[in-house]
Records
---
Amino acid sequence: MKTGEYVKLETKDGRHLQGLVMKSTDVNIISLKLDSGYNIGIDRKKVKSSKVLKQNNIACVKKLQKVDFDKKLKTVTILHTGGTVASRVSYKTGAVAPSFKPEELVEMFPELSNVVNVKSKLIGNMFSEDLRFSHWNKMAKEIEKELKEVDGIILTQGTDNLGLTACALSFVLENLNKPVLLVGSQRSSDRPSSDAAINLTCAANFIAKTDFNEVGICMHARSDDEGCYILPGCKTKKLHTSRRDAFKAVNSKPIAFVTKEGNVSFLEKYHKKDHHDRLRLRLFKENLKIGILKAHPNMFAFEIKNCSKYDGLVLEGTGLAGNFPINKVDVKTQEHKLISNELKKLAKKIPVVVTSNCIFGRINMNVYDTGRNMQDIGIIGNYSDMITETAFIKLAWLLSNYDKKKVKDLFMEDFRGEISKRTEFEEEFV
Ligand code: ASP
């Protein structure tokens, strides 16, 4: 079987597959693009029989080797940072490791070049759990450089922190006037069920067909394979470990739906942002220390004390007010007085902001005594509907770019759509 041939094959375990043979970087693996658009890697040893249905499809091979520039199409740079989308399964260990070169990844999805002219650049090769502020600064600098020449950016990354990167870039890229879409995949690109192809082609189509000029996320919309949602940069969370439709808008709606055929429908009226000023990078201070502390039963004051080295702290409390255990209600809760004292001390030194473990909904610290007392202690974030990750990034970005004294007021100002005006998304919660 040669690259570019359209083949039919049967595996020893009885599977019948049909598709286009792609260039494979491993001689033992046949890389097949199925009619569904999915790419699959098949161990040569497991093939029982094969038949070439169409001889070397010259046009296709040519396309794999060289993508011609089409003046009628927009040009997009795919910036690769690693993650499952750029990974393959090691058939020796069964583990997934980042291993595709950018050119290979583009070659794996030749359908992209029917939609946009593709430039491709590797700027990192890591899983997203290892991200630091410096990586976001680097991504922003690369985006700024590329946007001088192209119409949009697709940034591929591991999914664990895809929402955080989208949020971080939303803040850093001030006056952005072109689209920056983040794409990951929950299953590696060489698996039959990989979502990489659909996510990437939907992102390319969305850039090609709209004048969207913000940071967004393009990921599988539902459990079917019909298409992707474009999700807001600062209000999206990965809510499932393994499902392909893991990403959901929180206290917000998806911006648009893109079918796998490339049809776009906006879910709300979309107003393009007009910026009179030029793109400006407002980067993170790379040595800044921001913490996240989660409330839990049987908490101790030393847990707060341990946070004294931070420059800013997010408290992920419980329920409506983002409650922390600060009430001494009986002899068994004496520790809570100490917790309250430690929080008060800390809030005098650094900005301490609150979010809720509920994920959905808005903070209201006025309803119960605990919330009122937390406000008295100096904890901020009343009426915020930001998820913990967004609060973390916003706090880091504010402390990187503004005087520390101003951060308390600025935290509740909406900069990038991170705080919604009203809670009108209750119906989204099912
Ligand atoms: N842990 C991986 C990461 O976030 C998962 C993935 O690649 O999607 O990079």
---
Amino acid sequence: MAPRKIIIDTDPGQDDAVAILLALASPEDVDVLGITAVAGNVPLELTAKNARIICELAGKTDVPVFAGCDRPLGRDLVTAEHVHGKTGLDGPSLPDPQMPLQEQHAVDFIIETVRAHDTGTITLCPLGPLTNVATAFQRAPDIVEKVQQIVLMGGAYFEVGNITPTAEFNIYVDPEAADIVFKSGVDIVVMPLDVTHKALVTKPRNDAFRALGTPVGVAVAEMTDFFERFDKEKYGSAGAPLHDPCVTAYLIRPDLFTGRHVNVEVETSSDLTMGMTVADWWRVTGRPANAMFMGDIDADGFFGLLTERLARL
Ligand code: RIB
Ligand code: CA
């Protein structure tokens, strides 16, 4: 089967970095047409820089990187240096990028790419706030029905919030954008904290990354050594949750995940629960299902795939 054509929309972020590396290591499964940076974990200038650092770490400098929106649709940017560090990629010491940033705005790249391909052949993979994707849908409503699928990391239901008591970071940063995406009618697969908090980089798993002995393996281990602090301190987790790589792994091995096709709506008015993804898991509302909301993962299978693919770079 031909590899899926994807656009990765991202706010690197150590876990975004691993998701991008997994994609770039899997050309038989995914064809990365471009990487679009968005403001999120750190400001746009850094996410656009970090995306290029990761492409160079993977030795894939032919993948075009675009800068997108530098703030949410209707509110101030909230960042997460407390999780990812000042650079957004704290942990390893990686060189500044040499590859250029594309001139074109990320939103225009998304619009142009979907318009230029047959309907149902482009998958959007948002790993950060949904500002770029929502802006593209607002600016070019014609592309909505052309998108094959959106596979995103964001939201939470049983796991509740990681930035507020009720909201997950990606949705919280731009709830208006998330509301547009979830109401778009596009076929959506969601990787919420409910599943990503089961994809923990335990010490044996991180040792396996380091034991690859390659620049990529060592860098991923060092990113994890830094990134795990937040979750270990807050949740007492056994390791860092690899949120965003769940998106890429789903494209390669969807069988690693289980969930339910349910209605998911986003809170955009209550300050108390702003950005909450209200997943009708028990189907009590009668609202039409609009998302495949994942709840479980074969974690050993996930880490086996990830380690095997990272070894290729
Ligand atoms: O809440 C986790 C999400 O927020 C991940 O995508 C992480 O990279 C941050 O963007
Ligand atoms: Ca992210």
